[in-house]
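REQUEST ID: PR-0412
SUBMITTED BY: lab tech R.K.
PRIORITY: routine
TASK: structure prediction, single protein chain
INPUT:
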Amino acid sequence: MYKISIKNMIFNKSARFYLHLKNYFSFILFILVKPFISSKNIRINNKTILFFNNGQIGDLLVSSIILENEDLLPKSFKYVFLIKEEYLSLFKNYKGLFEIKTFNLSEYRFNIKYKLNLINELNNLGIAKFFNLCAARGILTEEFSYFIKSDEKIALNKSSFYLDSKLLNYFNNCYNNLLFDKQINEYEKTIGLLNLLDSNISKNGTVLNKGKLFDFEIKAKDYIVIAPFTSDMSRNWGTINYNKLIDLLSLKYNVVLLGSKNDIGKLDIVHNFRIKNLIGKTTLIEAAKYIAESKVYIGNDSGLTHIALKFNKPIIAIIGGGMWGRFFPFSNNNLHSFLAYKLNCFGCEWVCNFKVKYCINLLSIEDIQNKVDTIYSKLL
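STATUS: complete
OUTPUT:
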């Protein structure tokens, strides 16, 4: 039934080989830059804890558990969270303990002056502890971690999909501690990290959302949010399926569609008074408010699904098996459904040798529609 694609197998092997070549080219550049970075820890009695995550919206929302529970952290330190500047809007309403610092990834990658200035600026903070929170430890992430001068360096993840064993071992040596294996869910890792920072946290418990990022008033409304898009559309249930699902659900329910400006025009949306198309028309904070006020959320393994989880909304997430368990499923809420067609190749990191991604493509429209009807019946 499941057809192997020779073409995909060759492509996957070629892509992996190209990734290794690119990594070693970047490693050579790293070696050339090393002499220009001071090897000394600039201060003593350092009082700054720096958390670093160069991931996307979903990664940052996982890490935001630390910010949501900042009241449980030791008050004797200054806290800094370093992210890519393109995601600063996610923290627009944040007014907590952490200083949110940003960097431009493209400038860091290609502008040596920018790179040196950024590293020097951070090293002048007086860093007592540095935490690499990145789920994907790539060459640039590890180079950055290597250059940071800190009394103690900790990586959330022991392993890396992107680095071969030689590069991984090289960079692992710059850390004092490597915390968790890749089999553990990223949410569980972050909560585990909080427990390591302060033993009182395990007694008081952690909360995904205390209103630190999203502090707007929520008024429950009767509509379904559908967020049909992912940053990598090859891991998506598909626009044809979503078009049909939207048409079916809008016969019975009010539907709000969310997506970025890059997603405009990808769906063939029929004119229907029950459908409110906001694709490309909202900010990230506005999209979060629509999700928070919805009755049910439908999406993929994407940043907006992490927002729905943060608000503990009834979720139907079509995630497939490529990253199964890495971020989702998470939570014991019986109104959370994380869906994939069961195969024995789960956890392949989307390196798929099949002709199509069966783990996501074999999920039927009727399955999703029935899930929606079931959830609505439980909410009545």
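NOTES: Residues 6-33 form the longest helix (28 residues).
REVIEWED BY: pending
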